[in-house]
Amino acid sequence: MNRSFVCMDIQAEKISLIQWIAGLSDENLIAKIRALRGEKTDWWDELGEATKADIEEGIGELNRGEKHAYEDVVSKHR
Length: 78
Fold this sequence. Notes:
The chain is rod-shaped. The chain is built from four helices and no strands. It is an all-alpha fold and about 80 residues long. About 0% of the residues are buried.
């Protein structure tokens, strides 16, 4: 295969990827791409929205003095 053809093919693929990334709105996918690039991401950004909501709810319950048995919490997330 001709080296210049391979180079052009790679350039076209990079442009295609740039266009695809520019259209993304999924924060989890963007965080994964950022991680691939070598940037540090906050673990929070890699969590799903439901998991974040559960954590925030748990923090609120703790702040209000509400407690739950460990087994109950773990069984909810299995």
